[in-house]
Design a protein that fits this description.
The chain is an alpha/beta fold. It folds into two domains: 119 residues, Alpha-Beta Complex (Aspartate Aminotransferase, domain 1); 242 residues, Aspartate Aminotransferase, domain 2. Helices cover 40% and strands 16% of the residues. It is built from twelve helices and 14 strands. It is globular. Bound molecules: pyridoxal-5'-phosphate (PLP).
Length: 377
């Protein structure tokens, strides 16, 4: 399944990939190689199929990590005199606001505590109050906590008020349902190295065709201009600059495996089983969830750090890593937490084995109080 020396990555990405996906990177393709051009065409079509968006949207791939695609979406879709509403309940929402600041685009935030989902009513009210708002930028799964934000409700509120919705679906795309015919969005971004289980290295945007056609000249950047990337790829089937050929070949293989598994419903079901096995096992050990279960996406789970005075994240991390599993630190400012991902080429047996490794580590470190310091709900 994976090389024996490789640890299992239970993180928000890079993730554990299958052997077949890794083997797809054993060929060198020239950027004008017909095999590469055909793969590129197929990848773009398969990405649209994940969101049932072939009739309405176009897929524009882009070099770089996921944030490059987020910045490209904001810079290309939001005109220089645009105004973006950013409902914010975590670090990735804040990053969107920060990017807008760097780009010199006007932004208004609605701030929520990190344990609360965005509310569509608040978005609706803000849009009615401020006619200048042209777009809403929503993070679907806020990966800093694992919070699932209500995409369909927000999309409905935005569409009903004639504004454009920009979605960061980085950690949900492929795992959770995103049905373009029912959930209207102008643009959505995700990346190769998350729930599609490819290697990291390229992002992509699904953009409503009629909207993208009107975005010429918006972008503040040459390399992050999705309109230019799209028109030039349509013209000559080429990427504008050196394409990440190995990453694309591996993503192509990963998408074939995604389809063979049963597409998004099957991928989402496997991640839900992973998440249930993880939460059940960790709860049995005595760990406490940070989020209410009904707000938790089956992507990455935030647990309170144990309140035991002997707990140190770095030592805990190192010892679990020695047993073959890579965890992730928490990303919250107020509360001490740790995160465990349930995505990637792993199944519930992997999650059970990871829980066992965590349990052994807890005992080895002499940690007896697993509940957080301040007895929480
Ligand atoms: C992973 C992720 C990103 C992109 O992060 P990179 O480190 O640039 O790949 C953006 N938004 C969300 C919600 C993510 O989970």
């Amino acid at each position: 399944m994976t090389a024996p020396q490789d640890p299992i990555l239970l993180t928000p990405g890079p993730l554990t990939t299958s052997r077949r996906t890794k083997e797809a990177m054993l060929s060198d393709y020239g950027s004008r190689d017909m095999r590469f051009i055909e793969m590129n065409r197929r990848v773009r079509a398969m990405l649209l199929d994940v969101a049932h968006a072939r009739d309405t949207h176009v897929a524009v791939p882009l070099q770089g990590s996921g944030t490059f695609a987020v910045e490209a979406m904001l810079g290309t879709l939001v005109p220089r005199d645009g105004h973006v509403l950013v409902p914010a309940n975590g670090a990735y929402c804040q990053r969107i606001a920060r990017i807008l600041g760097v780009l010199g685009r006007r932004a208004t935030r609605i701030d929520y505590p990190e344990e609360q989902p965005v509310r569509a009513e608040d978005v609706a009210r803000a849009l009615e109050r401020e006619p200048s708002i042209s777009h809403v930028a929503l993070v679907h799964c806020e990966t800093s906590t694992g919070m699932l934000n209500p995409l369909a409700e927000v999309a409905g509120a935005v569409a009903a008020r004639g504004r454009g919705l920009l979605v960061d679906a980085m950690s949900s795309f492929g795992a959770l349902e995103i049905d373009a015919p029912r959930v209207p969005f102008d643009a959505l971004v995700a990346a190769s190295g998350k729930c599609l289980e490819g290697p990291p290295g390229m992002g992509f945007a699904l953009v409503r065709r009629g909207v993208l056609e009107r975005c010429a000249g918006n972008a503040h950047s040459l390399v992050l201009d999705l309109h230019d990337q799209w028109t030039s790829m349509e013209k000559n089937a080429q990427w504008r600059f050196t394409p990440p050929t190995h990453v694309l070949a591996a993503l192509h293989a990963a998408l074939e495996q995604f389809a063979a598994e049963g597409g998004q419903p099957a991928r989402g079901a496997r991640y839900r089983r992973n998440c249930e096995a993880l939460v059940a096992g960790m709860t049995r050990l005595g760990f406490r969830l940070f989020l209410e279960p009904r707000h938790q996406a089956p992507i990455i789970v935030t647990f309170h750090a144990p309140g035991d005075p002997g707990y140190r994240f770095q030592e805990f991390y190192d010892r679990v890593r020695e047993r073959g599993y890579v965890l992730y630190p928490g990303k919250l400012t107020q509360v001490d937490t740790l995160r465990v991902g349930c995505i990637g080429h792993v199944d519930e047996r992997t999650m059970q084995a990871a829980v066992q490794a965590i349990g052994e580590t807890v005992r080895e470190m002499g940690i007896t109080r697993l509940a957080p310091e301040k007895a929480a709900a």
